[in-house]
Design a protein that fits this description.
The protein is α/β, with parallel strands linked by helices. The chain is 33% helix and 23% strand. The longest helix is centred in the N-terminal third of the chain and has 20 residues. The model has no long low-confidence stretch (mean pLDDT 96).
Length: 505
């Protein structure tokens, strides 16, 4: 009968969250590198290279893979013969581990959790509470699977209450394109089937804790219906041509996981949750012998990838940019931008719009400026800024017409696609939308040479900053004529993949 000590449990949670903030798991890293090696789309290959380089830099510097360091989810299986040396509730102990991990002085993680979600949405400042699922099982150990999941992928979760005769594979194939690129593919799809509505969603989330093994499954063949579904969904989703970051390419998903459960005779609940290119989870057990000991990866195990410098890149001076200049940029073109760059997310945009509606002067002049949609991680040691990758630009669509019409804004930088109305506004105002690579946050931060809060300091990571950047890599996603690579790229690669599949048959 093992005695599980409070301090060991809390320390293990904290250490695990620090660990997954900067280490990709070996299986995910291997699958990502395989996707890079076989990718034929130049844009997708460049995106995968940036993600792999970012992964190495994060492992080396022990800094977050993504600026969105996630909402913590823990699946805790408690052995019924285990004893506890604590007076605290399990939830309280997990939250204390989260609190310690997210305030670690050498690797501060971004606090993203807000209380009163339908009201004032006040940041809890320490990323608590975690989402904890507990199961009592035979044995005397405590088994823990813990993940930190970013909002970009979590927000794309889907649930359908299908009828038993419905084609669930077709529902998935039809639904994945509606998720856009905000979940930062390539990643893993978790599928939960059966039970009730809430059980299906829980199964989908739990399935994402499993290791990537789709290639091994292909080699040995499926042993049951769930494995048949994994292979069928994997092939059909990748045939959509969405590709890395939604730019079009061969790999949209690295694996598909399926868990199922008996359900009512009249029901077919199906849930789908994606994991992004910054997939973060780890599994460990406590047996009373002390805190968990997680294996330290070796840097030489990381793929040695360099960005392709064969094609000349257009260098852009943001401090002297004009509409005539951006009119020359082509969709899909890679740029290196330097100069002063403003930032802003949902809360800042909302406040700017409210101020303008009241006739108040705005605190920042956006005339002929670019805004970067980012909520950065606080810097540590000698950093100018912590990891600062893009947030999903689609959320800012509701503010874009206002920003282009009333503030003099010239261009925007984020990740994922823009809606049709926003693309039309970009074309009307001869503006432009650029993307940075989601999943390359630490790499992006290396380009930030200075930083200051320009407005709304009370918003924390959602404040308006002014960055000075040097050679920050971006791609033209929507040009001044309204041409979008998130439309053209997947369409082009969907056709190419269909031809490849025909030849392979």
């Amino acid at each position: 009968m093992h005695l599980i000590r409070e301090q060991d449990f809390i320390a293990s949670i904290a250490d695990a969250l620090q660990y997954i903030s900067y280490y990709h798991s070996p299986d995910f890293l291997h699958a990502l590198n395989q996707a890079y090696e076989r990718e034929q789309s130049p844009a997708a290959r460049d995106a995968l290279a940036q993600i792999l380089i970012n992964s190495y830099l994060c492992a080396e510097g022990q800094r977050p893979l993504c600026q969105d360091t996630g909402i913590v989810t823990a699946f805790v299986r408690v052995g019924m013969q285990a004893r506890w040396d604590t007076d605290r509730a399990l939830q309280d102990m997990v939250d204390e581990g989260v609190r310690r991990a997210y305030s670690h002085p050498d690797n501060v993680l971004r606090a993203s959790i807000v209380a009163d979600p339908a009201g004032i949405r006040r940041n809890t400042r320490d990323n608590t509470p975690a989402i904890v699922h507990v199961e009592l099982v035979p044995g005397d150990q405590v088994d823990i699977r813990i993940a930190a999941k970013g909002g970009g992928s979590e927000n794309k979760a889907k649930l359908a209450m299908l009828e038993p005769s419905d084609d669930l594979v077709q529902w998935i194939v039809d639904t994945v394109p509606t998720m856009g690129a905000g979940w930062c593919p390539p990643g893993v799809l978790g599928i939960g089937i059966g039970g009730t509505a809430e059980k299906a969603v829980l199964l989908a989330k739990e399935s994402l804790m499993q290791p990537i093994d789709i290639q091994e499954l292909k080699a040995r063949g499926p042993a049951n219906r769930a494995e048949e579904l994994r292979l069928e969904i994997f092939d059909k989703v990748n045939a959509l041509g969405i590709g890395a970051q939604g730019l079009g390419g061969l790999t949209t998903v690295l694996d598909v996981k399926v868990l199922d459960c008996p359900t009512h005779a009249t029901s077919l609940p199906v849930a789908m949750i994606p994991n992004c290119a910054a997939t973060r989870h780890v599994h460990f057990a406590l047996d009373g012998s002390g805190p968990a000991r997680l294996p330290v990866p070796k840097l030489q195990d990381w793929p040695q990838v360099a960005l392709d410098s064969g094609a000349p890149l257009r260098r852009v001076n943001l401090d002297a940019i004009t509409r005539a200049d951006i009119a020359q940029w082509q969709p899909g073109e890679k740029l290196l931008i330097s100069g002063k760059l403003l930032t802003g997310r949902d809360a800042a945009h909302r406040r700017l719009q409210e101020m303008a509606a009241r006739g108040e002067p705005l605190p920042v002049d956006f005339t002929n400026r670019f805004i970067y949609y980012v909520g950065p991680v606080d810097p540590v040691r000698d950093e100018v800024m912590g990891p600062a990758g893009p947030t999903t630009a689609t959320r800012m669509d509701r503010f874009t017409y206002f920003m282009l019409e009333q503030t003099g804004l010239l261009g925007m930088i984020g990740k994922a696609e823009r809606g049709d109305t926003t693309v039309a506004a970009i074309k009307r105002h001869q503006s432009v939308y650029l993307i940075a690579i989601g999943g390359a946050a630490y790499l992006v931060s290396k380009a930030i040479k200075s930083s200051r809060v320009a407005a709304f300091a009370d918003l924390g990571m959602e404040a308006i900053y002014e960055f000075e950047v040097e050679d920050m890599p971006v791609t033209v996603a929507v040009d001044s004529q309204g041409h979008s690579v998130h439309h053209s790229g997947p369409a082009e690669w969907r056709e190419k993949i269909s031809k490849i599949n025909i030849v392979s048959r």
